[in-house]
Amino acid sequence: MTALVREAPWFMAALRAGRELGLAQWCIGAGALRNLVWDALHGQPRSALADVDLAYFCARDIDPARDAALQRRLLELCPELPWEVTNQAGVHVWFERCFGHAVEPLRSLHEAIASWPEPATAVGVWLDDADALHVIAPHGLADLLGMRVRRNPVRVSVETYRERCASKRYAERWPRVVVEGA
Length: 182
Known about the structure:
By secondary structure, the chain is an alpha/beta fold. The chain is 43% helix and 14% strand. The protein has one domain: Beta Polymerase, domain 2 (2-Layer Sandwich), CATH 3.30.460. A hairpin with a 5-residue loop joins strand 4 and strand 5 (133-136). The mean pLDDT is 94.
């Protein structure tokens, strides 16, 4: 998987831009990484991205204005990408409003990624100062590399999972993907 990341100029540019923010715990993952891998495994051109998720963790400052400022900086560095920046330490503040049930505050970026909707998308990559890639994959890489979609029960309801599967059109976009029922 890291070879695919290294071979994708847009993804490496995104990682370099992310590194410029100087955050202690951060990564780019979720759909951007899933699309990169599944497009390559299907031998098809790069899919359009709804967003490039930069997730970070900073419990000291969960003000949404910080996310917005970081997103503006990324747009300056890499304006061709549809950035979305989220401090995972503040997810508990808005999660109930968006998804209908309260959640406890997260304690780390690793714990946050472990709660993302499907194990195949619960993967992040970050780039250190020596240009080494690091992978955060709390559930492993088997689902991502095996093109398997299944619900992550850590935080995702059956209803949300079904809505995501319908809206993402996984099997239509990538015919070899296997989507499991909730």
